[in-house]
Design brief:
With 82 residues, this protein is an all-alpha fold. It is 48% helix and 0% strand.
């Protein structure tokens, strides 16, 4: 059985990602470029889909986000407790 949603969310990290990105004053394109430097190929369009809960997030992408924003990957589970 393949699960594509959890409690109607495709991901639980999109809102936290947006919050961190805006706090760092980065555009989605800026974030995409930083990800590419880490070897993670995401476009600004894919980042938008993640932030708007329209795309699943791979584990390696989540860890790259955490590295860029210098946070623990645990901060991205914020929505699961609500």
């Amino acid at each position: 059985m393949k699960i594509n949603k959890y409690n109607n969310f495709k991901n639980i990290s999109g809102s936290v990602l947006r919050e961190l990105r805006l706090k760092a004053n980065l555009s989605q394109q800026d974030l995409a470029e930083k990800l590419q430097l880490l070897g993670v190929e995401l476009t600004s369009k894919e980042i938008s889909k993640i932030e708007n809960d329209n795309r699943l997030v791979q584990d390696f992408e989540l860890f790259a986000f955490a590295k860029i924003f210098n946070v623990s990957a645990d901060v991205f589970n914020k929505k699961i407790d609500k």
